[in-house]
Model the fold of this input.
Amino acid sequence: DLIEAIVRETKLRVEVGGGIRTMEDVEAYLNLGVDRVILGTAALKDPAFLKEALARYGGRIVVGVDCKDGKVCASGWLDQSDVDYLDFAIEMEQLGVQTIVFTDISKDGTLAGPNLDMLEQLKRHVSLDIVASGGVKDIEDIEALRRLDVDGAIAGKSLYAGTLDLKEALDACAGDVAC
Done:
């Protein structure tokens, strides 16, 4: 109900992720007016589902690449796989994924800055749109991500903690579609 209200009552582009495991889930969110659906665990554990979602909805399907120590995690970050994050991103690109949300779990919620090294490696190995998540503290982090030419950033705790001013961040990204 909350997601539906946000879509209906604002002009925001809305993305939804977390626990989406079936085509019915994907369709329900997209039918509400959600712009993009983020698949995480399902992308890792159910390639047939991911392929079907991509075939039906293309760029409206985003894959979450959540990792710890370079290995992709699933099930709310509780299960660490043996899959290397770069190998997984390359595989996602080969399947037709256009956008990933990359989270270094060790940085999430820490305000310690995003993992620029891992993001740089992603930029070198794939041509996917990359949204950086985890660790963003302040405008300097936003500017560092822009220098890396990532396509977007998720800032959560920094906004709540007041270490990042949203207007300043949006102004810094003026003209960038993903901001």
